[in-house]
């Protein structure tokens, strides 16, 4: 069969008009938020039902056509990028939620449900979907599950993995599996659900997910604290954690703040300039809790760990303080940043960051380096900004040449080369810094079980 005959057959598997091959669609659906790879899919297909997904996977097996899953395309590791004539399977039309089950505190979602849609639905029932990040307005649940997305509330609520009660998946063989059936307790052998979370679509596609919800947090309150140096941030975390149940503990550098300030649409936290800032959040359930927070702030000032600070007094102020942190990534994106998303255990953060910072300062004396991240859970985002006058290829080549030193340090600390953005194409050549050769062989063997013809997102996580 010729290539166009394959595609004609694909049209018959889905609703009319749900296969696109025009240049604009190929460009738009063939990529995520990464900028290193040129998209080159051969078609985009939009299934509406599980049966259609199964039909597409079976068709792909018959003709040995590679499939790439596509959600909100907000990924930062090129796991949803199609560079090689693949067929992109978009879940845009599988975007329904079921009724909220208020007893089990769960809701059934199709993979194309937008994260914000789930958060709003939970809110309508006085419940809470706690996995949150800047791209929640366009990222999809299927993609969140594919990368085991983290974000800004991990210190309290954990990763996406913690919120998946059950999964229906179509494996690379086209079989439909119902995994865990939403149970809390289920001691019946291997939990295959967990394998599909974070698998980046390399084992199969999620066609339905039952997501857990939590009680709604009460009176969320944020503080932004300016510190005199990086070394003061961890004692601040320790001091606050000893007194309060934190829902977030983030940090950003003065350079990151300056970028957000330059937008002109976010009020500054305070006028004192500090090299680093911590943003923490807690539930101010009683006045006593707020007083405890203020007393801890004063203690931190006395210790010399904090120079200035502010506490939100309204939902508007809470939202404005969060913008200081959440707007960073989007604000610097036009500078084509080279991103690192690395993690170590919390106790090792100070020593680790110092070593990485030394490598970066030595290797990129002329580049702007922007630090921020979820420091309360050990996850640091290191963004190197492209100088305006340097072309993209030369810039990325220079950054890649520093990877070895950075990732050897990650390895030395038993850290992760990708804390929350996934491996995709961007980090796959560095997987060995976080996973042993034996572990990678077991991962490949698992892929072969679920996807014997290697049609599911080939080349992502590891090379084929
Ligand atoms: C964040 O925490 C996102 O803002 C994006 O994970 C991180 O842009 C980045 O490097
Ligand atoms: Zn992040």
UniProtKB/TrEMBL annotation:
Gene3D superfamilies xref list: 3.30.465.10, 3.30.70.2190, 3.30.70.2740, Uridine Diphospho-n-acetylenolpyruvylglucosamine Reductase, domain 2 (3.30.43.10), Vanillyl-alcohol Oxidase, Chain A, domain 4 (1.10.45.10)
Cofactor: FAD
Keyword Glycosyltransferase: no
Keywords in alphabetical order: FAD, Flavoprotein, Metal-binding, Oxidoreductase, Zinc
Record bears the keyword Flavoprotein: yes
GO terms (BP aspect): respiratory electron transport chain
GO molecular function: (R)-2-hydroxyglutarate dehydrogenase activity; FAD binding; metal ion binding
Ranges of residues in domain FAD-binding PCMH-type: 37-216
Name of the top EC class for this enzyme: oxidoreductase
Catalytic activity, as annotated: (R)-2-hydroxyglutarate + A = 2-oxoglutarate + AH2
EC identifiers of the protein: 1.1.99.39
Quaternary structure (record): Homodimer.
Family: Belongs to the FAD-binding oxidoreductase/transferase type 4 family.
Protein name as annotated: D-2-hydroxyglutarate dehydrogenase
Organism ancestry: Bacteria, Pseudomonadati, Pseudomonadota, Gammaproteobacteria, Pseudomonadales
């Amino acid at each position: 069969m010729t290539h166009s005959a394959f595609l004609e057959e694909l049209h018959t598997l889905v609703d009319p008009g749900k296969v696109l091959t025009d240049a604009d669609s190929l460009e738009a659906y063939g990529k995520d938020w990464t900028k290193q790879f040129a998209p080159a899919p051969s078609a985009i297909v939009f299934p509406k039902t599980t049966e259609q997904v199964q039909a597409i996977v079976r068709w792909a097996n018959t003709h040995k056509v590679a499939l790439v899953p596509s959600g909100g395309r907000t990924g930062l590791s090129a796991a949803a990028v199609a560079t090689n004539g693949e067929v992109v399977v978009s879940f845009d039309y599988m975007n329904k939620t079921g009724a909220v089950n208020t007893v089990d505190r769960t809701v059934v979602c199709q993979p194309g449900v937008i994260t914000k849609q789930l958060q709003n639905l939970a809110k309508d029932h006085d419940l809470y979907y706690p996995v949150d990040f800047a791209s929640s307005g366009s990222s999809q649940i299927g993609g969140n599950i594919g990368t085991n997305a983290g974000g800004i509330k991990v210190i309290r609520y954990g990763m996406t993995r913690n919120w998946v009660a059950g999964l229906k998946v179509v494996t690379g063989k086209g079989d439909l599996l119902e995994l865990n059936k939403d149970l809390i307790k289920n001691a019946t052998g291997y939990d295959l659900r967990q394998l599909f979370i974070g698998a980046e679509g390399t084992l199969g596609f999620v066609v339905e997910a039952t997501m857990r919800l939590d009680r709604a947090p009460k009176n969320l309150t944020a503080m932004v604290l300016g510190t005199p140096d990086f070394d003061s941030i961890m004692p601040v975390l320790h001091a606050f954690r000893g007194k309060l149940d934190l829902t977030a503990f983030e940090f950003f550098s003065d350079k990151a703040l300056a970028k957000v300030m330059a937008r002109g649409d976010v009020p500054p936290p305070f006028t004192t300039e500090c090299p680093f800032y911590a943003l923490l959040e807690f539930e101010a359930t009683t006045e006593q809790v707020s007083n405890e927070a203020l007393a801890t702030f004063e203690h931190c000032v006395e210790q010399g760990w904090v120079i200035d600070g502010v506490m939100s007094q309204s939902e508007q102020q809470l939202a404005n303080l969060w913008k200081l942190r959440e707007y960073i990534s989007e604000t610097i994106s036009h500078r084509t940043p080279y991103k690192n998303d690395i993690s170590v255990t919390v106790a090792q953060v100070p020593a680790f960051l110092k070593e990485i910072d030394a490598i970066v300062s030595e290797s990129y004396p002329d580049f702007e380096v922007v630090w921020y991240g979820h420091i309360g859970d050990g996850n640091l985002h290191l963004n190197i900004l492209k100088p305006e006058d340097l072309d993209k290829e030369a810039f990325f080549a220079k950054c890649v040449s520093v990877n070895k030193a950075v990732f050897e340090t990650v390895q030395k600390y038993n850290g992760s080369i990708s804390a929350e953005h996934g491996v995709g194409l961007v980090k796959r050549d560095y997987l060995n810094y976080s996973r042993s050769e034996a572990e990678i062989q077991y991962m490949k063997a698992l892929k072969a079980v679920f996807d014997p013809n290697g049609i599911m997102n080939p080349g992502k996580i590891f090379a084929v």
